[in-house]
């Protein structure tokens, strides 16, 4: 395959180090019955490793120039979608997994894990956060996800309360999925080398959320507002959303900052009567 010049506007950094590719495949642990979706296959180095190991493989690539290369180099069993992953309907690939939204909770009742999509990819770092939220919005048809992301982003994803890395991303993603950092990847494993180190991370959507949230939209609103000004305390950041009296009734000091709150405490604030 002719080498493709990476495009900056697509945030392209192509993985080339064989040892890292094998570690990713091992961590993903593909099975013969799997339906796998790869986001951003690039030059197809990971795709070719997966193609003979799974039942069905779909790849989503936005770069039309790469599509031609992929069609020439990949087996015909691989389905190639020239699409923007941020707008892609992943559940359309698993229509038997589509289930209605619950009127009580505003979320979907999750079907059994068998038959769900498994998603993998070296995600463009410039769209990684909105793409993660887009995927979790469709998590009822996704079994698990394994991604290469900027190390700093992964550190925030897995952060616990009390640290500088703990923030909105930590709370919202941990509410939606179990998150496990796998290993770090140096810049030299890519062409061209990015200016930051990377990490491999696994997300497994929760069958049942770790804390009950009555209104997911209000929960998201509370979390976003609480972290909007990190130096300010809850009394100020949540003004107009939750009164200091309500916080105290819940056992939460209005003088605390957002980074000290647990997932359960954010849920309690969101569930409190307005």
Please give a structural write-up.
This protein is of the alpha/beta class and 274 residues long. The protein folds into two domains: 8-205, Vaccinia Virus protein VP39 (Rossmann fold, 3-Layer(aba) Sandwich), CATH 3.40.50; 216-271, Helicase, Ruva Protein, domain 3 (Orthogonal Bundle). 31% of the residues lie in helices and 19% in strands. Strands 4-3-2-5-6-9-7 form a seven-stranded mixed β-sheet, sandwiched between helices. Strand 2, helix 2 and strand 3 (56-61) form a beta-alpha-beta unit. Helix 7 crosses helix 10 (263-271). The longest helix is centred in the N-terminal third of the chain and has 11 residues, at 18-28. The model is unreliable at 6-12 and 100-106 (pLDDT under 50).
CATH architecture verdict of the largest domain: 3-Layer(aba) Sandwich
What characterizes the major β-sheet?
7 strands, mixed
Number of helices: 10
Proportion of helical residues: 25-40%
Indicate the radius of gyration in whole angstroms.
20 Å
- The parts where pLDDT drops under 50 for at least 5 residues are 6-12, 100-106
State the oligomer.
single chain
CATH top level of the largest domain?
A: Alpha Beta
Classify the secondary structure makeup into a structural class.
alpha/beta
Spatially, the strands of the biggest sheet line up as: 4-3-2-5-6-9-7
What's the number of extended β-strand segments?
Answer: 9
Between the first and last Cα atoms, what is the distance in angstroms?
A: 60 Å
CATH topology (fold) name of the largest domain: Rossmann fold
What series of H and E elements makes up the topology?
A: EHEHEHEEHEHHEEEHHHH
| Average pLDDT number | 88
Instruction: Return the domain count.
Output: 2
Shape summary: elongated
């Amino acid at each position: 395959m002719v080498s493709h010049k990476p495009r900056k506007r697509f945030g392209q950094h192509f993985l080339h180090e064989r040892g890292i590719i094998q570690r990713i495949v091992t961590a993903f642990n593909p099975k013969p019955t799997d339906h796998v979706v790869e986001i951003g296959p690039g030059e197809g180095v990971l795709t070719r490793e997966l193609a003979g190991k799974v039942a069905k493989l779909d790849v989503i690539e936005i770069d039309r120039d790469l599509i031609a290369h992929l069609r020439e180099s990949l087996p015909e069993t691989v389905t190639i979608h020239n699409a923007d992953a941020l707008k892609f309907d992943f559940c359309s690939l698993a229509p038997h997994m589509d289930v209605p939204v619950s009127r009580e909770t505003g979320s979907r009742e999750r079907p059994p894990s068998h038959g769900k999509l498994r998603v993998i990819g070296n995600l463009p770092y410039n769209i990684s956060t909105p793409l993660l939220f887009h995927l979790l919005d469709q998590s009822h048809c996704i079994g698990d996800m394994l991604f290469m992301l900027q190390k700093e982003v992964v550190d925030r994803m897995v952060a616990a309360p009390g640290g500088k890395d703990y923030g909105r991303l930590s709370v919202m993603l941990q509410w939606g999925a179990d998150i496990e950092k796998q290993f770090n990847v140096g810049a030299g494993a890519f062409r061209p080398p990015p200016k930051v180190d990377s990490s491999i991370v696994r997300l497994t959507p929760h069958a049942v959320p770790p804390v009950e949230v009555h209104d997911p939209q209000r929960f998201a609103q509370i979390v976003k507002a609480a972290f909007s000004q990190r130096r300010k305390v809850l009394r100020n950041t949540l003004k107009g959303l939750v009164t200091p009296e309500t916080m105290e009734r819940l056992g939460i000091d209005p003088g605390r900052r957002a980074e000290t709150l647990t997932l359960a405490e954010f849920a309690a604030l969101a569930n409190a009567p307005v």
